[in-house]
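Attaching the record inline, Q. Sequence:
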Amino acid sequence: LLYPKNIDVETENNTRLNQLPGSPILYRAQDTGPSQHLSKPSSWTNAPEVLALKLNAQVMLLRNLDIQQSL
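Structure, as predicted:
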């Protein structure tokens, strides 16, 4: 599926997450780096500050985390 607006993507993601059994686990972002970048993280990423996941939820990385491990 392809959506033109982020709000439509969020709605689809939440709908699919709610279809999975179980309770979501919440993960809060822990950003590190130069303070000028941390003051406005939404200006350089669309990653949420709090991420809700359930077992078997599909995820997509927005940034390379560890190239050696292909993340």
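The chain has a mean pLDDT of 83. Residues 13 and 68 are 29 Å apart (CA to CA).

More tomorrow.
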